[in-house]
Write a structure and sequence with these properties.
137 residues, mainly alpha
Length: 137
């Protein structure tokens, strides 16, 4: 993930890397799915096409380096995981609240739930945390 963020000249911190790893581990079903089984979400991060469009608009308005790869189909998220990681990172750049400390995994899991999954999603902070611990601890 770090390499993907650097490739697109995006801000990379240990907190951002851990957050994205946590989301990918949970949302992809332990790295099994790049397309939601019963829905529209795509990539290891399970980004939905309307969210993809919002992130593309943000990247283009801010003239982020990744914008030079846009516009493109959200299906690129399926076969280009570097691009998917970059788009997931840009998703979080849109919020003024800073990422929690990299060592506070519980806070990162709550952040993932609050911003990525939101209050209407089925995931819990514990699910994000446990997926991260299973694969990266």
């Amino acid at each position: 993930i770090d390499d993907a963020l650097l490739n697109y000249r995006l801000p990379t911190t240990e907190a951002a890397i851990r957050l994205l790893c946590m989301i990918a581990a949970h949302e992809s079903g332990d790295f099994h799915y790049v397309r939601q089984r019963r829905g529209p979400a795509l990539s290891l991060f399970q980004m939905e096409p309307p969210t993809f469009d919002d992130v593309c608009d943000y990247a283009q308005r801010r003239n982020l380096y990744i914008a030079s790869y846009l516009p493109c189909s959200p299906w690129r998220l399926v076969f280009d995981q570097r691009f998917a990681a970059g788009m997931a990172r840009i998703f979080f750049l849109r919020f003024p609240e800073p990422l929690p400390d990299a060592d506070d995994l519980h806070a990162l899991a709550c952040y993932a739930k609050g911003y990525w999954n939101t209050y209407i999603g089925k995931a819990t902070p514990d699910q994000y945390l446990n997926a991260y611990l299973q694969h990266f601890a």
